[in-house]
UniProtKB/TrEMBL annotation:
It comes from Carassius auratus (Goldfish). The chain crosses the membrane at residues 204-226. Keywords: Membrane, Transmembrane, Transmembrane helix. This is Uncharacterized protein LOC113044075.
Length: 231
């Protein structure tokens, strides 16, 4: 049985669309703001007909019974291999490789007669072909209304699970740059050179003093010798 999500806390608890580079949360915010209008009776009117393939909507056949049987067709959106005209904030982290950046989807049950979404689901791939039954959820009209009241930044802040943020910070904190140690070694070498320079200058001064003393002694002795010879 597919669980229904009624509020932002329910959505945050599922960890749908997390962590980056997954695009599910941005995709869901885009859908709530651009594809559906909810009236006072919780009827979800489609602003775009998914049958026409706008934004990359494509028929979903539900062959593996991921979702309950319905006499209405299912359509999926969010495949970034076929992004249609999805906005940049949804597609910007797509790598083009078989990784988590193209993992998330929205699936809708569509009533073409009344131009309404009967049911809306979020899900994720378990591999390149299959979807994950254990991570498939129905989105309630109330949750969509809550999302419509928020801008994208606030919505992400309220739905990103803190455990992912902590894990991301622990694993992604930059390692100390080797530059300071290199700089320190350079400073040490410069300091060593300075000390050596001071020593060399001191030795030169001392050598000059010794030479001067020797010259003075030599002159003094020469003077005494000269004086004796004169006497």
């Amino acid at each position: 049985m597919v669980r229904t999500l009624y509020n932002l806390s329910d959505l945050r608890e599922t960890r749908f669309g997390q962590p980056s580079p997954r695009h599910g949360l941005s995709l869901l915010w885009w859908f709530a703001h651009n594809c559906v209008q909810i009236d006072s009776n919780s009827r979800m009117t489609a602003l775009y007909n998914p049958e026409y393939g706008a934004f990359g909507f494509d028929l979903f056949y539900n062959r593996e019974r991921l979702l309950p049987y319905s006499n209405r067709p299912y359509y999926e959106v969010g495949n970034l291999n076929n992004p249609g005209s999805l906005p940049h904030y949804v597609t910007k982290k797509y790598t083009g490789y078989s990784d988590d950046s193209n993992k998330d989807r929205i699936i809708v049950s569509f009533n073409s007669r009344w131009n309404r979404f009967e049911k809306i689901y979020v899900t994720q791939h378990s591999d390149e072909v299959h979807f994950d039954q254990n991570h498939t959820y129905r989105i309630s009209p109330k949750l969509l209304e809550d999302i419509q009241e928020l801008n994208l930044k606030k919505f992400l802040r309220k739905t990103i699970n803190n455990s992912y943020q902590i894990s991301y910070q622990m694993h992604c904190t930059p390692c100390p740059s080797p530059a300071p140690s290199v700089k320190t070694e350079s400073n040490q070498r410069q300091g060593s050179k300075s000390v050596k320079g001071v020593c060399a200058e001191s030795c030169e001064v001392l050598f000059c003093i010794i030479i001067i003393i020797i010259i003075i002694i030599f002159l003094f002795m020469l003077f005494i010798s000269f004086s004796k010879m004169k006497i």
